[in-house]
């Protein structure tokens, strides 16, 4: 199903599922990606790096994001840009949804 030329509530694209992380790729191109995630409480992404800057926009809930050892609490309607090649991790202290935008150029 194409998402082109449609009004879409981004938060409705993924639903919470207990004990897991749900994701949906909205745009996937060589030049970048947009992915929507729903994290159940207690879920997360372990520390890793990416070769490009990545922007996280919180759609619902609240996330704890660690970048280079510094913890940030990011709430609904807020964003955080994670620099390229810096270690980062995400934790769901309570359920949250986010949109991840990565531009590869």
TrEMBL record:
Coiled coil segments of this chain: none
SUPFAM superfamilies in the record: RmlC-like cupins
CDD domains on file: cupin_HP0902-like (cd02230)
One Pfam family named in its UniProt record: Cupin_2
Domain (Cupin type-2): residue spans on this chain: 36-101
TM stretches of this protein: none
Name of the protein in its database record: Cupin type-2 domain-containing protein
């Amino acid at each position: 199903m194409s998402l082109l030329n449609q009004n879409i509530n981004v938060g409705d694209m993924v639903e919470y599922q207990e004990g897991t992380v749900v994701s949906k790729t909205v745009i996937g191109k060589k030049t970048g990606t947009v992915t929507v995630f729903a994290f159940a409480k207690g879920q997360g992404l372990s520390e890793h790096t990416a070769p490009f800057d990545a922007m996280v926009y919180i759609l619902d809930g609240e996330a704890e994001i660690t970048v280079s050892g510094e913890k940030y609490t990011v709430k609904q309607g807020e964003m955080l840009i994670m620099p390229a090649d810096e270690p980062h991790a995400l934790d769901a202290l309570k359920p949250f949804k986010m949109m991840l935008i990565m531009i590869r150029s």
